[in-house]
Structures are given as C-alpha cells and as structure tokens.
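pasting for ref
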Amino acid sequence: MGRKNRTRQRAQQNRDGRPEGKRNRDDAGWGAGYSEIIKENKLFEHYYTELKIVPEGEFEEFMEAMREPLPATIRITGYKSHAKEILHTLKEKYFKEVQDLEVDGQKIEAPQPLSWYPDELAWHTNLSRKILRKSPLLEKFHQFLVSETESGNISRQEAVSMIPPLLMKIEPQHKILDMCAAPGSKTAQLIEMLHSDMDIPFPEGFVIANDVDNKRCYLLVHQAKRLNSPCIMVVNHDASSIPRLYFDQDGKKDILFYDRILCDVPCSGDGTMRKNIDVWKKWTTSNSIHLHGLQIRIAVRGVEQLAVGGRMVYSTCSLNPIEDEAVIAALLEKSEGALELADASADLPGLKYMPGITSWKVMTKEGQWFSDWSEVPTSRHTQIRPTMFPPTDPEKLANMKLERCMRILPHHQNTGGFFVAVLVKKAPMPWNRPVEGETPAEGNPSVPDTPDPSECPLMDGVCYCSFSSVTELHIDMRCSVCSSPPPPKKMKLFGFKEDPFVFLTEDDPIFPPIQAFYDLSPDFPKLNVLTRTHEGKKRHLYMVSKELRNVLLNNSERMKVINTGVKVWSRNNDGEQFGCAFRLAQEGIYTLCPYIRARIINISVEDVKVLLTQENPFLSKLGDDAHTQAKKLEMGSIVLRYLPDPQDLDAPQCPIDLCGWRGKTSIRAFVSRNECLHYLRMVGVEVFRDKQGKRNDGSTETQEESTEDKLPNCFPFCVPYTSDVQPTG
C-alpha cells in the first residue's frame, strides 16, 4: 500500500482525529473519567475568537459548555411497531421513578425529550455511568437501557449525530448510500426511516453502508443486525473511490444512482471535546488542513453518484470552516451550478443553530494567519490549498448561499459541536455531462452512455469508471471509450475473506418441504433467499429485498460485501422427521410472517408471560384458546402471535410475533435473552437484577437456585409484579 493510501486509511479509521480505540462521536456521552487532562487550549480559543463563529458576548459561555461533560442521550427506534410501547414504559415507569431522586446530595434531573426530534423519540439526561450505579432504582434504569439497546429498541447516540438522517427526508423507495458509516448509529436511523411502514416487509429502497476500515465494518454489521432488516448491505471501500455500481432495469444494465447520500466525513473532531477529552491537548489547525483534501474527494465522489434531484447531507463534528464551509464552497464551485445548498431551516423546528459563515481565514499550527491564497508562501503550497479560502468573487460567494449551512454550538442546547449542510443535485456534474455527439444513458440523463467495461482498453479490460476518484479534472485524460476520469490506482481489497452470497433458484429442492410445512403464500419471493455456501448442507437461509438482490448479482466482482440479509430459517436436523428441516429464526420473523399461513398459534398476554418465564411449559399451561390451537399442530417450529385488543388499553397495543417449538407435550419460545426481557416488560413483568444477586422481593438465591437456570431465555431475575405467574423450574 502506498504512503498516501496509508495516510488516507489512517485518517478514515481514526474518524475524529483520535487514536484508535478512543470513543467515537456516535456513542452517547455517559460521563467523563479524564480528570488528569486540563481542559485548556489557548490556540483553540485564539483561533475561534478570531473566526467569530460564536455570537458576540457568548464566547465564555461557549467555552464553559465545552468543558462540561456531555449529557447522555437515547433514541427510541422509530421503525419498529414497538416504539410507542417503549416510550410509554419509559415515561410512565422509569422516568417517573428517577425524577425525584437524590444521589449523594445531588438531585437527579428527569430526562427531557429533545425538542427538535419528532414524536418524542429522543431524550437526554445528566445521568453519568457512576450515578447510574449508585442507586438501585437508577441501576434498574441502566439495565433497562442496556438490554433494550442490545435488542435494537433503543440506541445510545449523541444528540447532534441524530441530525443528518432527519435532514435527508427519506422515503421507503429511496436508494441510500452512507459513505463513512461506522460505527453505525446514523445508519440505524436510515434503516428505521426506510421501514417507516411496518406493513411493508420489503421496502423498494435500501441502504448501502460503507466504511474504509475492515474491522469497523463489523461494528457496523452489529448495529445493523439489531434492526433485522432485509434492506441493508455493508461494504468495505475507501469512500473517496467507492466503485460505481450497476443494476438491471427493464432487461438493460444501468448505472446505480442514489436518491439520498449521507456524507459524514472523517474530521478533526473539535466539536467532540466534551466527551473526547484528549482533543483538548492535541488540537491544532494542522488536523483540519491535513483532512481538507480527503473531505473534498469523498464529497465529490458522493455527488458523482447522486441522482439528479437527490439530496446529499454533508456533516462533520468539527467547528472549523476549513472542514465545513470551505469544502461546501469547493463542491459548489466544481459543480458549475449542478449543486445547490438547500434551505433546511424549517425542517427541524426547535433546533438552535448558527448559519454558515462567508468569511474566514487559515491559520497554521504556529499561529500564522492567511486571509487569501495569494498570501500563502510557495513553501506552504503543498499543505495549504486554494480551496481552503472563501471565494474571492463577491457575486459567486453570494450565489453559493453558504448561510444555509448549519453550525450547532454546544452552549445553545447542551450538545456537542456539529456542522451540517444539505446539497440538492439539480443537473449532472460537469465531468459527467454528455460530450457533444454522445447520447445520454437511457432512463438517466446524468451520465454519458457507458459501454460494456470489457470494451475499455485502459485497465486490463475493466472500465475506469468503476474506480474513479476525481481530484484534479483533466478532460484530456478521460477514457477514450467512456469519458471517465482516470483513477489513481486499481481497487484493492483488504481484511477478512467473506463467505460467498449464493442465491437459491426457484426450483431448489430446499423449498418444497418448507413451502408445504409453513403453507407459504404463492407470492413468497423465493429468488430473494440466499445462503453463504456453494457446497454442503445449507445451515442458514437469509433474505434480502429484490432491489438488493439486483445490486448483489450485478456487482459481485466490483465491491467487497461484508454482510447483507436477515436470517429467516436455520437448519434443525430433528425437524426432518416432522416434515421440515428448517425452523424459523426470530431475527427474520417480521420479514417472513406476511407469507406464513400455517403453524401459527394466537396467544394472550398471560400466554406470553408463561412462555417467557417458564422453561418448556406443558401445553396445558396455556390459555384454553391457545391450548386448543396447539393440540391441533404436529411437532415442529411454530409462530406464537399476540394481536392487540383495542378495548384493553392496559395490554400492549402492538402485535408480537415469537418463534417457538411445539414439542410432544410442551411448548417453548425461541427468543434471545434481551428480546425476552423486552417482551416481558411490554406485558408488565418487572425485570431486574441487583448487584448482590438478590431478587426484588429481598430474598437471596444461591447459584443452584438462580432464576437464570429457570429462565433460559433471560438473565436473572424476572419477577412478575402484575401477574400470578411465577417462574418455575
């Protein structure tokens, strides 16, 4: 790997200018333990005082806020039908118990909703990890947060990190690219918005989440997997040269352009000082100067792949205009009118922000200032570039409308610092416009017609446009066949070798027994089912949306896919004797359920409590209705379905589908530990374990008596407080 590529990869791996392993901006701030670091940096204060990004008279307040720990923030996942139930549980139980508490003489402030986040689905609190562990009631709240986070129902995420996805205005049919996605909190938001209508198991849109760091891609997979979506694909590429993808449309291979792109670029991270305390002693202007070029290259690659009419949101957790307005100005200038800054001022009512600035200077780490490119000595031309300065033409500057950018300052709403801008693509980029005499690609006027890559003579039979990274545009260096700019290098793949993604055919012998056993509806999309092996027995079956299948089949040699698909069936050899070797997987139950017409038992709230607090209960433990249904079924995998009763407002008002197994005389639910806890809370069962291993009633259990042994799906202790159903062995 060349020196420049190594530098680029390190810059993107250490997203916020931090050493690897430090906490990132997408995590919520849960207290600080950095008392040994003095929160002072005179150069930082001098720089931002001179730039005047903070309103007059507020700078001291700004600096005081920067020195305070960041409040903890949580977001309730919005696409799951259970979001309202979780919000109800939080507001009516946990928040009420917390609001009047005092710990060590400190009054605990009740959590408050973020005023600008829709439907009260995001909250912030001053609770730190240390305080959470000092009171049993707070510890209970902490356990709730941990288990609900693991089951994907809550995300701990910094408040300002939630802003970019909201400004993208996502709809279920949108094709979305997240260019620098790890660790994945924003990606999770994008997935949620895609699934805003839970009655549609396969939205037409999808999210492709990319990151340059192979290891961080697996953090991304973990975040995405919590949401169990068939519409997410994680890929591993350098964002500045992410390959152009293709898909079949009406029998013709076409270029994939995205409706929405999130361009959350690597940055110096000086807006994160409240939680990344080491930034205080390491901050210099050279961080921004070194990242500016990479940020432009990533943003240019983004707008190249944006569809005409699409929106790209550019964001950083830096307050520095060299990483913010300067990058936007360079993009607008390169676009020659193809891009426009959108006015997003009315999109998030209640959000306080400062408009973008139109005048700034560049300062070296030694404190030397330059107001214009003409002042920069030749010896510094390799570090300081013309694009770091504001445009000198007043008319051009005014037409850019940089004031439409948004800078969030920490002291205005007790958040981190952040910058965001919304770009709309009005026309093809200049270097993608058809050359005179060429015919635009059919169905999308934004690029010239691209021949089969095998016709391109420039890169061993592979077209340059698959790997282009536009830095300096030299038209005379375009490919003579497809007019694409040349890349610096051919794409290289790093990291682990992934198992293949193998789609099944409609006549695969796996399907008939599955179809018969579960009575799948005729419209079940067999072609969307894939496995991860070419040979031997298939252990797991996964599903993706039709659109992602299209992308996968047409780009297997062009991109490195880390993960995609949601698991829907797992092999269970014992099941073969009952007619089907595959049992249902809880991860994919909401994807599969619209197509399953058999093996369903309708259950009540009391049945849910029995199934999740008892190990292999006898069929007779179920209510009469569920018991009658269960007796009619043969042994094997089943769906346990709870449907809400609008007349019973004390019961959960959302449907619940659980995977289960109907045994010879008993029945059980196959649910992960944290999902078990989630569903128990929904039906009114208190779930809490104190530090001494005591149950809520005050008794102490030995290891042999532990409720964990009695409740294999949950950790101890599950203590029903509204039901007579007691855990049994």
